[in-house]
Q: What sequence folds into this?
């Protein structure tokens, strides 16, 4: 796991194993973002092993935030993943 950030951005990189398929794992994370009042604004899959989505949020101070979520299958098991979340504050 790697985390790095400050008041204007935050990066989180994770790796691990899940019994869920990549689409199911992505769906669970996206549901959590939705429950936290983030709005999905796009999605993309660059390859069968890669899944991604883009998000927007308005903070309590009225300032916008944007995030990108990416999940990628790694290894032969099909259930080992890397996940990256990049969050940045808008102007």
A:
């Amino acid at each position: 796991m790697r985390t790095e950030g400050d008041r204007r951005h935050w990066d989180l990189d994770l790796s691990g194993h899940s019994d869920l398929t990549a689409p199911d794992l992505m769906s669970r994370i996206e549901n959590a973002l939705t429950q936290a009042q983030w709005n999905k604004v796009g999605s993309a899959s660059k390859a069968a092993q890669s899944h991604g989505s883009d998000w927007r949020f308005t903070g309590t101070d009225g300032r916008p935030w944007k995030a990108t979520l990416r999940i990628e299958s790694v290894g032969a098991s099909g259930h080992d993943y890397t996940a990256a979340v990049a969050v940045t504050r808008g102007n």
